[in-house]
Design goal:
14 helices; Class-I_Pyr_Nuc-Dis_Oxidored; FAD/NAD(P)-binding domain; 475 residues; Enolase-like, domain 1; alpha/beta; five-stranded parallel β-sheet; 21 strands
Length: 475
């Protein structure tokens, strides 16, 4: 096997494997190194997203939502379910099957696009203007040479100080996806995306869920109106969400975890949980790259320092995804991976951070793109706003899910769309129209004038755009 490549990608997550495929499509000899292993020790490319993140969590969210609907919502449709029971082992096995399908799909895409795959951990031996030497530590150790290197090593869950993950009682996202029995009492530290999604999964399956969040505001990154509606819906469903909490000591016993904390009023509290999920953010994976020895510069937070084009401090060494600045989102990593591959090939890759969508796959789903209303106010931007509730949408009524609304924010002078915020059914799919519109710098009038199928949930986006000008037709 040749050991000289035009491009070597370290990491096979969303940013890495997509970068490798795009580089190969552009005629560059390409290799990808990834160390993830499946249960049998074989290769499992796809990174955190595929193995213990986006993909398995969505599988569990879907299965748990079906279970919740069968127990509560089906009756409204005249579907009577008797003797409902949960086979958690099979539910988790299905999740594992979905993950494997994605692992195998990536390996197939490597083969299809003639990307050479190495199963192991990649690290720098040396770098220079003439290329980089990369050591691969796997079943055997070997060294390859690359003209260009793309680092896409992703991130790992952040643990609380002096509270390591054991993945049995104190869980990261990895353990949260594989709890073998539904815990009676489940605690979560962190009310972000992972906390809300995992809390929703296990609540639906029967857990009493308590979320402890240090920040005083709920979903501070989302539009305030969306956050307010989300709080209302999640607490109504049974999630106990405590804000302004200061975590104290955490002690793992034989079969439970005790958490001492101070609530938002300063009162000391103690809670005992069967399991505790900690989701307080993630840290970039740079350990093991040999970054210091080759002079790869890291910033003050431990991320690989890059310029706007994802170039690092080293010649012909690039970095993308969670290991660099910007939102830790799989689709952001993919866009950067494609852009870097195209830049290496002499093209002009492009990533617009202002149109990267955000999604929380709870029920109701939450999705947004662009500026929030509070951001526009703080920046003194004159804007117009239009909202439309799913309660007035015919398709939502037929689905039996009329929770939430669509909110469109547009420039008061030019009518250019500045942000779109959705909470409700299929928000993750509906946001794509608004992303495309913002990429083309469309106005709210543009969406308002586009014919949307009837009945469809997408009509709510059209109606919210009409509402910017005060002329919604169905509300």
């Amino acid at each position: 096997m040749a050991n000289n490549f035009d491009v070597v990608v370290i990491g096979g997550g969303p940013g890495g494997y997509v970068a490798a495929i795009r580089a190969a499509q552009l005629g560059l000899s390409t290799a990808c190194i990834d160390e993830w292993k499946n249960a049998k020790g074989g290769p499992a490319p796809g990174g955190t997203c595929t193995n213990v993140g986006c993909i398995p969590s969505k599988a569990l969210l879907q299965s748990s939502e079906y279970f919740d609907h069968a127990g509560h919502a089906f009756a409204d449709h005249g579907i009577e379910v008797g003797g409902l029971s949960l086979n958690l082992k099979k539910l988790l096995a299905r999740k594992d099957t979905v993950v494997k399908q994605n692992n195998d799909g990536i390996l197939y895409l490597f083969k299809k696009n003639k990307v050479t795959f190495f199963h192991g951990r990649g690290s720098f031996v040396r770098t220079g203007a003439d290329g980089s030497e990369i050591r691969i530590a796997g079943a055997t150790e070997e060294t390859i040479v690359a003209k260009h290197v793309i680092v896409a090593t992703g991130s790992s869950p952040r643990a609380l100080p002096n509270v390591p993950f054991d993945e049995k009682l104190i869980l990261s996202n990895t353990g949260a996806l594989a709890i073998p029995d539904v815990p009676k009492k489940l605690g979560l530290i962190g009310a972000g995306v992972i906390g809300l999604e995992m809390g929703s999964v296990w609540r639906r399956l029967g857990s009493e869920v308590t979320i402890l969040e240090a920040l005083p505001n709920f979903l501070g990154a989302a539009d305030e109106a969306v956050a307010k509606e989300a709080w209302k819906q999640f607490t109504k469903q049974g999630l106990s969400i405590n804000l302004g909490v200061k975590i104290g000591t955490i002690a793992a016993g034989k079969n439970n975890v005790t958490v001492n904390y101070t609530d938002d009023k300063g009162a000391a509290q103690k809670a005992v949980f069967d399991k505790l999920i900690v989701s307080i953010g993630r840290v970039p994976n740079t350990i093991g790259l040999n970054a210091e020895d080759v002079g790869l510069k890291l910033d003050e937070r431990g991320f690989i320092a890059v310029d706007d084009d994802c170039r690092t401090s080293l010649p012909n060494v690039w970095a993308v995804g969670d290991v660099v600045r910007g939102p830790m989102l799989a689709h952001k990593a993919e866009e950067e991976g494609v852009a870097v591959a195209e830049r290496i090939a002499g093209q002009h890759g492009h990533v617009n951070f202002n149109t990267v969508p955000w999604v929380i796959y709870t029920s109701p789903e939450i999705a947004w793109v662009g500026k929030t209303e509070q951001q526009l106010k703080s920046e003194n931007v004159a804007y117009k706003s239009g909202s439309f509730p799913f309660l007035a949408n015919g398709r939502a009524r037929a689905l039996g899910d009329t929770t939430g609304f669509v909110k469109v924010l547009a420039d008061a002078r030019t009518d250019e769309i500045l942000g779109v915020h959705i909470i409700g059914p299929m928000a993750s799919e509906l946001i794509a129209e608004s992303v495309a519109a913002m990429e083309f710098r469309a106005s709210s009038e543009d969406i308002a004038r586009i014919c949307h199928a009837h009945p469809s949930l997408s009509e709510a986006v059209k109606e919210a755009s009409l509402a910017v000008d005060g002329r919604a037709l169905n509300f």
